[in-house]
Amino acid sequence: MTTPLLEVRDLRIALDAGGRSHDAVGNVSFSIGRGETFGLVGESGCGKSITALSIMGLLRSPLSLAGGAIALDGREIQDLPAADMRRLRGKRIAMIFQEPMTALNPLSPVGRQIAEMFVLHERASWKEAWERAEDALRQVRVPSPERRVHDYPHQLSGGMRQRVMIAIALACGPDLLVADEPTTALDVTVQAEIVDLMAELCAAKGTAVLMISHDLGLVANMCERVAVMYAGRIVESQAADAIFAHPRHPYTQGLIGSLPLLSARSRHGRQKLREISGVVPSIVAYPPGCRFNPRCPAMTDICARDVPMAESLPDGGLVRCHHHG
Ligand SMILES: Nc1ncnc2c1ncn2[C@@H]1O[C@H](COP(=O)(O)OP(=O)(O)O)[C@@H](O)[C@H]1O
Ligand code: SF4
Ligand SMILES: [Mg+2]
Question: Per the confidence metrics, is the pTM higher than 0.85?
């Protein structure tokens, strides 16, 4: 078997609150092959971003890595010294965030922020780095890149800023791009453009993508495999093209039911969205047994008592539910 590009094994993240350590994320395992697109989906508050931050080595107090391993090309990176981790970030693994404004330096022209990547990671001269920055802006299809390199982030639209973030992230040809809700803050029309651009550039460069979103439709469209996360656990994973036909976990079924397009096509021509009732519980108040039980239409006594274990399925998928069917 070939070594996966990224392997996350039994990841655990603790949250310190009120003098106690809480289990924010646990039993999270998945792997991503070279050039593969992998989706992580779930409602807001399920633990997607802190999982991404742990991969990047960017967890900060009150959150901390409490266990498990993160391996890049077979080499564990979770305990690397900060300086080594900084070298990996940008060069081998890069991340883009929901709101580019918070990730960009407001006081520095965007061209300089791209150029820095070449200077920092590839020891390019500033002159060469500026030329390459202009090329990088051209690649992400920012119009008039020769002028735009001198713009400050606030002079660009949200969509253009996210293009700049993609240019920075892909500048040094990383093996893995972690994209955390990259289009959530953008207008619907711009969202599709950004997703297509990301997919196209990553495919051309052979960059693997960990695509994170609350939007199952978007993730399933872009990714080969999808993992569904609920309350700090992966509750289901399988091939993206099978998940709509055979969702195994009640939470996945709920997510699909609340997608506008799919439910519009649902039986009896009903247009009404079936939102999942209730909300994601807070880390300090997870219910006993299955964490989805207060919201689950299929819940029984055992669900309130016993934590369901992850079951591996013959098709390579996984499900965590006492009554998956
Ligand atoms: N810095 C923090 N301090 C305390 N709690 C946090 C912090 N960051 C995230 N959390 C909590 O961790 C949980 C998971 O958060 P997050 O990973 O951001 O979810 P998602 O990205 O799926 O919306 C949430 O309950 C959130 O409130
Ligand atoms: S274990 Fe029970 S409560 Fe949890 S998802 Fe399955 S049926 Fe629902
Ligand atoms: Mg998030």
Answer: yes
